[in-house]
Design a protein that fits this description.
11 helices, 16 strands
């Protein structure tokens, strides 16, 4: 069976990456691409690297244009997806790459985003440990999927094995991320101009104000055994992103206190058990740590783990491509699972180098 697909926000970075992956997918037909201000223009004018899709023209983003497809991807700014998802009730599968359907807490939505709250959908991070299993199980047959925030999934994947196994204390997590500007989207912003970021590193959303903080807390709370209590009680995180002059990629260094009495072997075993059989999330051998250069264009998250006994903390360094594994790759991987297709269809484990 070939599934018909519409991609909204197709002139942006996330939409373009979804299209790049889907263009090589044998089970889908990209039938419709939409935009707002760029509607009516050739897709190739805005995504000149997508040569195989040069025949497509950007249509206006409306519920009527998006309806009538088997699958709709929404790659829209935060707060804009909900108006369309409400109108796409008859679409068999809708995948939102924005934040509108990620959070379970109304209070968190009001604090970090604002505007209308929409119901949470199945979270599109298949490898994430959740209550003794994996999030993958909740994506099988799903009709509505919320693709993750790239920073959020990087940190959550980094620490969830330790939370699930009880070898770290999640009440004192500290994470600092080096982030490429493509994660902020394609809209023209002064702070993202080349002259502003080249040769500089710039922290932003300092002091717990970044919108991905509640998403991380939510994911880590779900990783705990069911006996550990509900919601995100006991999950505390200091989260500091730093904009660096690389077009795409995330390097997250996350630390958390070791639980009392755990051995080094038990700590490493938690991550090996969680990801030993995974294709797209890989723990590197002891003493090795990833670079963003190793994951560009790939659907892989690579991580290295160290145990700092002097500080009493575990240190996890994770790298992924924010547009691929962080967003579009996670969305397509989740789509494959929902439809019963081979999970890795059209998704690369190999990056592009140099």
């Amino acid at each position: 069976m070939t599934y018909s697909v519409a991609v909204s926000g197709a002139s942006g970075y996330a939409g373009g990456e979804i299209l790049r992956i889907l263009a090589a997918h044998p089970d889908v037909e990209i039938r419709t691409v939409t935009a707002h201000s760029n509607a009516g223009q050739p897709l190739i004018q805005h995504q000149p690297h997508l040569r195989s899709l040069a025949h497509l023209t950007l249509a206006e983003t409306t519920p009527e244009v998006l309806a009538g497809h088997d699958i709709v991807f929404l790659a829209l700014p935060h707060g804009q997806s909900g108006q369309y998802t409400d109108a796409l009730r008859d679409t068999p599968l809708v995948i939102d790459a924005g934040a509108d359907h990620r959070l379970e807490s109304v209070a968190d939505w009001d604090r970090f985003y604002g505007g209308s709250f929409h119901e949470p959908w199945a979270y599109g991070v298949p490898e994430l440990p959740v209550g003794g299993s994996k999030q993958r199980e909740r994506l099988v047959g799903a009709a509505r999927i919320a693709a993750p925030g790239c920073n959020a999934s990087t940190v959550s994947l980094s620490l969830a094995p330790g939370v699930a196994a009880g070898v770290i204390d999640p009440s004192d997590i500290v994470t600092v991320l080096a982030v490429g500007p493509s994660g902020a989207g394609k809209s023209l912003k002064t702070n993202l101009l080349a002259s502003e970021i080249l040769g500089s590193a710039n922290p932003y959303a300092v002091g717990g104000t970044h919108r991905h903080v509640p998403e991380i807390r939510q994911a880590l709370a779900a990783a705990r055994p069911s006996s550990a209590g509900g919601a995100d009680e006991g999950i505390r995180i200091s989260f500091t992103p730093v904009l660096v002059p690389m077009s795409r990629g995330i390097l997250a260094t996350s630390t958390a206190p070791l639980a009392p009495g755990v051995s080094d072997e038990e700590v490493r075993a938690a991550w090996e058990t969680a990801y030993g059989d995974e294709t797209f999330v890989q723990l590197l051998p002891e003493g090795q740590f990833p670079r963003t250069a190793d994951v560009i264009g790939a659907n892989t998250a690579l991580m290295g783990l160290a145990i700092d006994r002097a500080a009493g903390r575990v240190v996890v360094v994770a790298a992924l491509d924010n547009l691929t594994k962080g967003t579009a790759g996670a969305a397509v991987q989740s789509m494959n699972i929902a439809l019963g297709l081979a999970e890795g269809t059209a998704l690369a484990v190999n990056g592009v180098a140099p």
